[in-house]
Amino acid sequence: MSKKVQPGENREEPDYSGISDELLAERLEEFRGILFEERQRLMKNARRTLTEEMTVDQDDLPDEMDLASADYNQNLSFRLRGRERHLLSKIEESLERLDDGDYWHCEECEAWIGFRRLRARPVTKLCIICKEKQEHRERAFA
Ligand SMILES: [Zn+2]
Questions:
Q1: Which of 14, 93, 97, 126 would be a feasible disulfide site paired with 102, CB 3.0-4.6 Å?
Q2: Gap from CA of 2 to ligand 1 centroid (Å)
């Protein structure tokens, strides 16, 4: 099925920095929504973890509980929450960047990051080229 796209009707506009203010405002709402949703999801997870911990008293643990695996699970949950905390701060930062109008541009070279990349990684601050350079540096000093 092919349909001729009328101006203003094409929602999959080319990904470049010269888009109209109107479309950029639309994108701003879209990405604000994406970031808010992700933040909601993290908050819900954090609350659930907290509730689970408060309801499981150490004395209530069954005797046959494998201690090694309980330790392992606890480590895992600490690490996940560390990662979630990190992600949450990145989301807050992205929301600020969105309000400041910096969100669309690479923090390092100021290039247009692109909607496709931002949809895949909504908290990124780097264009794909700077990201690859950064990963290369990190590998070099790892
Ligand atoms: Zn860049």
A1: 97
A2: 36
**How does pLDDT run across 94-132, given as a tens digit for each residue?**
999 999 999 999 999 999 999 999 999 999 999 999 999
Task: Tell me the domain boundaries of the chain.
Answer: 20-55+67-102, 104-142
Cα(123) to ligand 1 centroid in Å equals 14
Looking at residues 80-97, what average pLDDT do you find? 89
Please give the span between the terminal C-alpha atoms of the chain, in angstroms, as a whole number: 51
β-sheet bridge partners, residue 105: 112
pTM for the model: 0.70
